[in-house]
Amino acid sequence: MDGVEVKQARHIHLSGICGTAMASLAGLLQLEGHRVTGSDKAAYPPMSDQLREMGISVMEPYAETNLDPPPDLVVIGNALSRGNPEIERALDARIPFASMAALLREEFLIGRSSLVVAGTHGKTTTTSMLAWIYQVAARENAAFEPSFLIGGVAENFGSSFQLRPTGTFIVEGDEYDTAFFDKGPKFLHYFPDALILTHVEFDHADIYADLAAVKTAFKRLVNLVPRRGIILAFDGSPNVSECIERAFCRVERYGFTDGANWRIANLRHEDGLTRWEVWRGGALWAELEMRLAGEHNALNATAAAALATSQGVSKDAIMAALASFKSVKRRLEVRAEINGITIIDDFAHHPTAIRETLRALRSVYPNSRLWAVLEPRSNTLRRKVLADDLIQSLQQADCVMMAGVYQQERIPEDERLHPEDVVNALNAVGTPAQLCPSVDAILDSMVPQLQSGDVVAILSNGGFDGIYEKLPARLRGKPPTS
User: Fold this and answer.
1) What integer best gives the mean pLDDT of the chain?
2) Is the Cβ–Cβ distance between 193 and 115 less than 8 Å?
3) What range defines the domain where residue 84 resides?
4) 292 and 163, same structural domain?
């Protein structure tokens, strides 16, 4: 187990194990020597594949008998609520239970330096970048080799978690609620020694009433950073500035403004690479490059570089790591190139993320016709609260295909997004858009129009009824056109 100290082994059962964070915690617990079991409504990739590789079987569906004989501890995922048979069994039998976030802190963060990456956007990619920087730094100094938990599969590692006996744990700090018995955000359990704060916007409309409630959560996170710690905060957001204004520790800003401690300049995409300068204290600190496109990814990389520097990582290691950084699954991921048509998968959950994804694709494919295929699936996109922002973001595309709201019956009518209004607004401003009742209808309409050189961005934070497999299959049966 790579020198990891094995604690007293327990039988730990994870209810809701196929969630990214839960499956990652399962892997960490197994590495620590515990017997791990799990259950879910239905096993689904990519985490079901990762669990299978670890030899952890998933019981389907939830059932009281999944907790027989009773485990030593039940970890309850935040998607589960009262009425779930495993929750009811644990309560009736007084089986000890905990949340994912609380157990992560108890088992893995105490005694280590906790480096937390938080924010409405960019945290998964930034966490992956920071972990890879530390991994590259470990080639020179083994003490830098990190433990980590990321809300996605980091392609450099082929995993969403790692456990090492060293003193650093890098964790993605999620602002979503923790469990049915703990409605505060997960990141309040992580007690950061150092913090990256990327963006603060209204999101998770199912649990936050408004932007003020979101800002309150991030202010509480900032208030947990000790005086000896450091916060690296994006300098292009008034909301971020408000959240850090009462910090007790050192704060350094990164971004594009002249006053940024870590200022990005001369950003360009050329020869398949993104290159930019980072200026610090009025002097050129480094010229960085990476394969990922987009202004938002340059910001993510600069934040990771700044935090790593504050912890003693060398500039050479940072530059080498960013140059060799691959990506995260489902972040601007090229799924297929068929007949000259490129299919991109992106984990779109918010209008700002959609805008930055489409802008990044514009920089990589400046001469291509760009299609946006959107499934409003996240709890924010399914609601109309950010409809105007969504319309503006989708105008970055040349053509838009839109599915209906995922499980719309679960959203109150007066809160629900009406996709037909989005489509009508886009057509009114000259962006061709179409609403289709199903994935098959989307493909029936779109595939005959596709030409060599087109780029299709599929935007969803879920399975989107198999479109990732159905579209390539359709294209393989379609002759090339130009």
Assistant:
1) 92
2) yes
3) 11-100
4) yes
